[in-house]
Amino acid sequence: MMTVLTSPLDILSWTIMEIILVICVLGNGFIIFVNGYYWLQNRKMVVCDILLTALSTSRFLLHFLLLMNSVLDFISPEAYFNRYRMEIVFFSWLFLNIISLWCNTWLSVFYCLKVTNFPNGLFLWLKTRINALTLKLLGMSIVVSTIFSVPSAISYYDQKKRCNMTGMQPLNASQSKVCKDINTVFLPLQLCVFSINFIMNITASILLLTSRWRHTRNLRKSGIGVKDLNTRIHVNVIKPLIFSVFFYLIYFAGTIIYATHIVNRRETAAMASYIMFSLLPLSHSVILILTNPKLKTSYARILNFKWRAS
Question: What domains are there in the chain, each with its CATH number?
Fold first, then answer.
């Protein structure tokens, strides 16, 4: 995405976007480093850590790609319209974004099934098999999404040939739109993947919130009180979950606005929508670092080292 920087608001939006991308790259790079370090020490990794590492790796590559693309756009705006570069960036973004979405979704589902308890046959069956099923389901989700993208890719390259034919104009307005914006052909696929992941993620989060809220309420009714360690742990789990759901709603809204061309791609409003769906990976990475025991401990050690060094 590229917005012409012609006003202070444009410059401010671009600066905010770059800061978000840099923080996402650093945050996810930190998660990859910590999990990689523990893996080298123990030579094994549990399912939850595998999902977390896969999620952070896809986000790191995704945001590093967007950061480099944005910097190049700023340095050389005319290069933005290079067709081959646009295709490379778009297809890389699409693939990495699909992986990131599915990793995030299955991480939420995994955590939901591990922590919550509901008297449901299917739920209990999944709960006992989630360790073995999660990675298989993740792989199947990515493969199926990739397979479903093939017809869109074929359609795009077919219409691209029509656009490139000398003296031949596109047959209709939709083909003319494809010639200008690669995203048009892949819009149904994106909306389908985004919607499925959104429904699954929100459902898992709501079930988890409901379970934790009921458990906390039962602890309070039993007279243990909020000062009890177990109660405080559950309250601390609920807070980041609420933030995650909130930012996921913003992410979905921003994605719909940007993908469906409600705003012009060259306007500052497009940058604002882009910032909206970049807040989820940013906030989620921060929440993971502050709530995951290993990540939190490693981050505290770094801060302590810097404090001593200063």
Answer: 8-302 (1.20.1070.10)
Q: Tell me, what amino acid is at 191?
A: L
Give the mean pLDDT of 242-254.
81
Reported as a single tens digit per residue, the pLDDT across 156-200 is: 888 777 776 644 454 555 555 556 667 778 888 888 998 999 999
Burial bucket for residue 21 (CB in 10 Å: 0-12, 13-18, 19+): buried
- Between CA 227 and CA 239, with CA 233 as vertex, the angle to 5 degrees is 105
Which contacts (CB < 8 Å, 24+ apart) does range 141-144 have? 141/102, 141/105, 141/106, 142/98, 142/99, 142/102
CB 205 within 8 A of CB 238: no
Q: Cα separation of 87 and 104, whole Å?
A: 25
pTM (predicted TM-score): 0.85
For residue 175, count other CB atoms closer than 10 A to its CB: 17
**CA 111, 130, 34: angle at the middle one, nearest 5?**
50
Q: Is the dihedral of CA 71, 63, 61, 190 positive or negative?
A: negative
Closest Cα partner for 97 from 194, 178, 29, 162? 194
CB 225 within 8 A of CB 231: yes
